[in-house]
């Protein structure tokens, strides 16, 4: 797996590799606003992930996920803060995301 210095570097490289959809994390699903679609944890796969730790700024703590729908029709990225800045998630979503931490 490649190593990236910044979140932006990871997002740009993944986009060049076909991860073009912008996904967002919600309490119990992953949503794609541009296509007005939502995926439950069993409908997507995390293909890669990159963790960034803000040495000087806690705002820089994030995980970039490369995800795709199980049928392979949609590939994209999702950025999730962790630590005190993380969003509350359902237990099912926590388990799905924790597998890849």
Tags for this model:
101 residues, alpha+beta, four-stranded mixed sheet
Number of DSSP strands? Answer: 7
List the helices and strands in order. HEEEEEEEH
Main sheet: strand order: 1-7-6-5
User: Percent range for helical residues?
Assistant: 10-25%
Radius of gyration: 13 Å
Q: Work out the strand percent.
A: 25-35%
Q: Runs with pLDDT <50, length 5+?
A: none
Walk me through what this model shows.
The radius of gyration is 13 Å and the shape is globular. It has one domain. Helix content is 18%, strand content 34%. The chain starts with 6 loop residues before the first helix and ends with a helix. It has a four-stranded mixed β-sheet, covered by helices on one side. It is of the alpha+beta class. The mean pLDDT is 80. A hairpin with a 5-residue loop joins β6 (62-69) and β7 (75-81).
Give a short summary of the structure:
By secondary structure, the chain is of the alpha+beta class. The protein has helices at residues 7-16, 91-98, and strands at 21-22, 24-25, 30-32, 37-39, 44-52, 62-69, 75-81.
Sequence-ordered SSE layout with sheet pairings:
Elements: H1 7-16, E1 21-22, E2 24-25, E3 30-32, E4 37-39, E5 44-52, E6 62-69, E7 75-81, H2 91-98
């Amino acid at each position: 797996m490649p190593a990236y210095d910044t979140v932006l570097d990871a997002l740009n490289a993944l986009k060049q590799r076909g991860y073009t959809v912008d996904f967002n994390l919600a309490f119990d699903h992953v949503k794609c606003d541009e296509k007005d679609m939502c995926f439950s944890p069993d409908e997507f796969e995390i293909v890669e992930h990159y963790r960034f730790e803000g040495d000087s700024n806690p705002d820089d703590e994030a995980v970039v996920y490369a995800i795709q729908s199980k049928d392979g029709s949609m590939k994209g990225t999702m950025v999730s803060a962790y630590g005190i800045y993380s969003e509350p998630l359902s237990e099912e979503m926590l388990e799905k995301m924790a597998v890849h931490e």
